[in-house]
Write a structure and sequence with these properties.
It is built from 13 helices and 12 strands. The radius of gyration is 21 Å and the shape is globular. The two termini are about 15 Å apart.
């Protein structure tokens, strides 16, 4: 991408970021009404998701991110004054995107990557999260009309050159069957984990609450399990996360809490309970909603070995100490604040798109 076109795109995307960071009344109205279509998309969670995208689209990070990319497709279109940029050139590929809908705007980054790479995004939005992403992309087109032809929303994928699909371990089998003959990125279930040493401050443990409870724990970047040293005292942890207690007032979260609690009580499963979160020792990574798994480790070397064993199913690791891990490591409270270059599953989406 030429320097001029890079500056143009960075400028328009950073303007979009400012609009999302400081939403106007029209956008706030959409945010406030999302829960009518999806009860998990509360106004608070939806606003946080919108602002997180806005924070991601800051000028400095956009310059760093796009500065590392080598796509020339959109650049060639914009530089050719005699071309009609509403019609794609032979270099532009149609990239089918099957977006998840577990948290608001979870598929935005994939759409952004396709647009920034100069290809055309065929967007199959989730029925749980279709209104907000359409509105935000409409805002982008108002700022950058030249990109109006860079995406389209579809009901059924057809006539595509590549696919990026996000789903569960079960749906990934179908994705691989249907899309295995074209270049693809197919994502499965992942969860995030926190490594605690027992020396964390109350503030760090409070911030860990964001990693656990933001979006009700529905995201792949939400912490579903903690690794703790033997004889770990959970009392400071429970005291530090007490401000998140109002989460139990959400009826769907409360239903999950009550259900899992009743199962543990009936089965006689040992667990800890603070009235809005169940904490249970378990070797598995993915915990049920309203449940946090934990696992003991002997020493930090042992903990790192365990993290390496789980790496294929980990999205990110939350910790306050440096770790030598292949997965992304973030500080407390940062799991739901990814940067533009924090690609899902550690797969460089822009590199994939540049190679088409």
């Amino acid at each position: 991408m030429s320097k001029a076109n890079k500056i143009y795109l960075i400028g328009r995307l950073s303007e979009l970021g400012l609009k999302l960071t400081n939403p106007d009344d029209e956008l706030l109205d959409i945010i406030d009404n999302e829960h009518h279509y999806n009860a998990w998309f509360t106004p608070e969670n939806t606003l946080n998701a919108v602002k997180a995208i806005g924070a991601m689209l800051n000028e400095e990070d956009l310059a760093t991110w796009l500065g590392s990319q080598k796509s020339e497709v959109r650049s060639q279109k914009l530089e050719n004054e005699n071309s009609d940029i509403r019609h794609p050139t032979s270099d532009i590929k149609k990239v089918g995107l099957i977006l998840a809908g577990n948290i608001p705007l979870v598929g935005f980054h994939d759409v952004l990557c396709v647009i920034a790479s100069g290809h055309h995004a065929l967007i199959k939005a989730s029925s749980n999260d279709s209104r907000l992403i359409k509105y935000i992309l409409g805002l982008f087109v108002q700022l950058a009309p030249e990109y109006a032809d860079s995406f389209s929303f579809i009901d059924r994928l057809a006539d595509f050159d590549a696919v990026i699909a996000t789903g569960s371990n079960n749906t990934s089998r179908y994705f691989e069957y249907y899309f295995g003959k074209v270049p693809n990125i197919i994502r499965k279930n992942r969860n995030s984990v926190a490594l605690l040493t027992g020396k964390e401050s109350r503030e760090q443990l409070f911030m860990l609450g964001h990693d656990i409870f933001d979006f009700f724990g529905l995201g792949c970047r939400n912490v579903s399990k903690v690794l703790v040293p033997k004889a770990y005292d959970f009392v400071p942890f429970f005291e530090s996360i007490e401000p998140y207690q109002p989460i139990i007032n959400h009826h769907k979260y409360n239903n999950n809490y009550d259900y899992n609690k009743s199962i543990y009580l009936v089965n006689g499963d040992k667990h800890l309970d603070n009235g809005f979160l169940l904490v249970k020792e378990d070797e598995r990574l993915a915990s049920p909603l309203a449940v946090l798994y934990f696992e003991y480790y002997d020493d930090l070397d042992d903990a790192q070995i365990r993290l390496a064993e789980l790496s294929d199913n980990i999205q990110c690791i939350v910790s306050g100490i440096p770790l030598n891990q292949s997965n992304q490591v973030v500080g407390f409270g940062q799991s739901q604040q990814p940067k533009l270059w924090d690609y899902a599953d550690g797969v460089d989406t822009m590199a994939f798109l540049a190679a088409l």
